[in-house]
Design goal:
mainly alpha; two-stranded parallel sheet; 5 helices; 2 strands; elongated
Length: 108
């Protein structure tokens, strides 16, 4: 996960809501009863970026490569692109996104 616009704890709570199909207010009860599926969360989601922190494309790929090697991840969710640092010599958003996607494809 590379979600720049939400704190990681909030994002993880949202994922647990979806997993259990309950509102956030019901998660504490599931936890007390020992049925909150934290193992699912830890098995399927790993953080690449932090809340409201910008990364360069190379930072992003380096962190993803680390998680491939250490955790065996096979997908990356990046949301949104506007928190990825553009190199100073890029004038065109289309070219930046194209180059980023090319770099991610070569990584994959």
């Amino acid at each position: 996960l590379c979600c720049f616009e939400a704190p990681l704890d909030v994002l993880l709570i949202q994922l647990l809501e979806k997993r259990h199909r309950v509102h956030e207010s019901e998660l504490a009860e599931l936890h007390r009863n020992g049925i909150l599926d934290l193992d699912w969360l830890y098995a399927h989601f790993h953080a690449i970026g932090g809340s409201f922190v910008t990364l360069t494309p190379q930072d992003l790929i380096t962190r993803a490569r680390f998680l491939v090697e250490k955790q065996g991840i096979n997908a990356i969710l990046i949301d949104p692109y506007n928190y990825i640092d553009w190199p100073a010599d890029f004038m065109n958003e289309t070219q930046f996104v194209s180059d980023l996607l090319t770099a991610l494809q070569q990584f994959g």
